[in-house]
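Hi R.,

Here's the chain you asked about this morning:
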Amino acid sequence: PVPPAVTPAPAPVEPKPLNVAPPVAPAPVIPSEGFKPPHLPRMRVGFVKSMKLASSTPSLLFAEPCFRQQDGRVSTYETLIQHLKDMDGRFRLDYWNVGQVIAKLTSQASKIPGYLIFVSMGEAIFNNETDLKHLLELLQAHPQAAKQIIIALRYQDCLNHTKRLGKVVKLLSAVGVQLAIDELPNAPQAIK
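And the predicted structure, written out as tokens:
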């Protein structure tokens, strides 16, 4: 009988190095003190103080941007919103307003303990993932300021976007802001 042929084992193959960079962890979001939103010469934000309901509750300020026109007249927040019919313009105003609030809350000269700042937000965050992402990144970068901000969503916008409402509320809550419903009708069926 002939012994079976023995096949020698193949030589080990050295793995070729891949030309892929090692994974890099994303840079942590570091809140910056004294946040500086874009400067718009004739825009400013006013902080309107609300009535304090009880001594144990924080005071509430309403952040309302206004625009000084070349002739000296001032366009109020309501007027600005009416002129900004498109969602992109409204979101830019809302984003600028939140930036002004954060600048106020993070400035060294203006620590506002015991205040919550109410900021109205248009429906763009329901329709545009990019806008929502930009807002969340801004708030996430300033967690201490976010704790003092109340984002107010219009009642009608919430009804119009019920499918996205849960996601938006969850994401905004996760960055530390409080939420409110603005322009709630004075009717029992509004909260059913």
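The two ends are 93 Å apart (CA to CA).

Let me know if you need anything else.
M.
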